[in-house]
Design brief:
Strand content: 15-25%
CATH class: Alpha Beta
Largest sheet: 6 strands, mixed
Strand order of the largest sheet: 4-3-14-13-10-9
Distance between the termini: 38 Å
Number of strands: 16
Radius of gyration: 19 Å
Helix content: 10-25%
Number of domains: 1
CATH architecture: 4-Layer Sandwich
Order of helices and strands: EEEHEEHEHEEEEEEEHEHEEH
Length: about 350
């Protein structure tokens, strides 16, 4: 078992692979958004347990007492996202978000409920909406053993920090496969220029989806012999921003992440689960006992100023997915082995095409 912070190995951007037009934040991570915490619990045991949990907290305070506006977008709903209906109905988060494997959702949800009930000020709470996303890592991980426990989820929550989390085969990305290669956790951020508000936006992904791999518009599916025919699979996308937005415009941001997903070659197939949750950390739009009576739309950015954030959402998602592939290492597990994306052929083709 391990929890991890980001390593110092070169990322795609360090080598010239820089999607989009907006600059990243200081660490090109979801934790560039002030207040956001992220952490992992990685579980690798024997020959067939390859799984974990990733935790994302919108802020370090009491999330139940200071709820953040949030929205959910679904491209294809083949998934088991716990807490989805209340999130859509009320437009807010009252717990951290946990990501894990499909059959570990109940254990992670139970941990979130216990964690929330134990927070100071929640002694009278009798309803909790835990939000837990998942992808099915059943090839590398013996998912039927249900090795993850509530304690593992609590360890992931305890590991959450305001520094860049590790990427690749860690946490909820330990056993995932993406576009025929080893997938995992990836993150990226964008910082708007001052004349466009100066707001930040960060994305964290758990990549386990199928399709045909693309980098900067070039296809790389032929790197596999034979090329990947897999189309099914899933992704969880978490987006944080410090822009003052209500759930109405956060839903628009969440939907734009799928543009970044498409740029990487996703198939959006019948068997895919493609989910995006977006939330705002801005203190003026938090739902506290005092602020809940004040409509958030009176505080949020006007629609005319939203376009840069919409573009940044697509860019950061695309780069986070590429980062997840770039950092992942080859892995052997329950039902076989999965190769890591080879870096040099990708770089050579991008150079030849004048893309880097």
């Amino acid at each position: 078992m391990a929890s991890g912070l980001a390593a110092s190995a070169p990322r795609p951007r360090d080598l010239g692979i820089a999607p989009g037009i907006y600059a990243p934040g200081p660490h090109n991570s979801i934790t560039d958004v002030p207040g956001v915490l992220a952490g992992h619990l990685t579980l690798i045991e024997g020959a067939d347990i390859r799984t974990g949990i990733t935790a994302v907290l919108p802020h370090p305070g009491s999330l139940y007492q200071e709820r953040v506006p949030a929205a959910l977008a679904v491209a294809n709903g083949f998934g088991k996202l716990a807490g989805a209906t209340q999130l859509r109905e009320l437009g807010e988060l009252e717990t951290p978000i946990l990501l894990t494997n499909t059959l570990a959702v109940p254990a992670a949800a139970a941990a979130l409920i216990g964690w929330t009930l134990a927070q100071p000020g929640n002694e009278a709470v009798r309803s909790v909406n835990p939000v837990v996303g998942e992808t099915n890592a059943g090839f590398l991980n013996d998912i039927r053993r249900r090795a993850l426990t509530e304690e593992h989820a609590l360890q992931a929550l305890s590991a959450a920090r305001d520094v860049p989390p590790a990427e690749g085969a860690v946490g909820a990305g330990t056993g995932t496969i993406c576009l025929g290669w080893k997938g995992g956790i990836g993150s990226s951020s964008r910082l708007l220029p001052a004349e466009q508000g100066g707001y930040g936006l960060g994305v964290l992904v758990q990549t386990n989806f199928g399709g045909r791999l693309q980098f900067l518009g070039l296809s790389f599916d032929d790197l596999r012999r034979p090329p990947s025919a897999a189309a099914d699979g899933s992704i969880m996308i978490l987006l944080a921003t410090d822009a003052p937005l209500s759930e109405r415009n956060l839903s628009r941001l969440a939907a734009r992440t799928f543009a970044g997903l498409a740029r990487c070659g996703a198939a959006f197939s019948n068997g895919s689960g493609d989910y995006a949750i977006a939330f705002s950390t801005h203190e003026d739009v938090r739902r506290t006992a005092v602020r809940r009576a004040q409509p958030a739309y009176l505080l949020e950015l006007p629609n005319d100023l939203l376009s840069p954030l919409l573009q940044a959402a697509a860019e950061a998602t695309e780069e986070a997915i590429l980062n997840s592939l770039w950092a992942a290492q080859p892995m052997t597990g329950h039902r076989g082995s999965v190769e890591a994306l080879p870096h040099e052929p990708v770089l050579a083709r991008l150079r030849a095409a004048g893309q880097i």
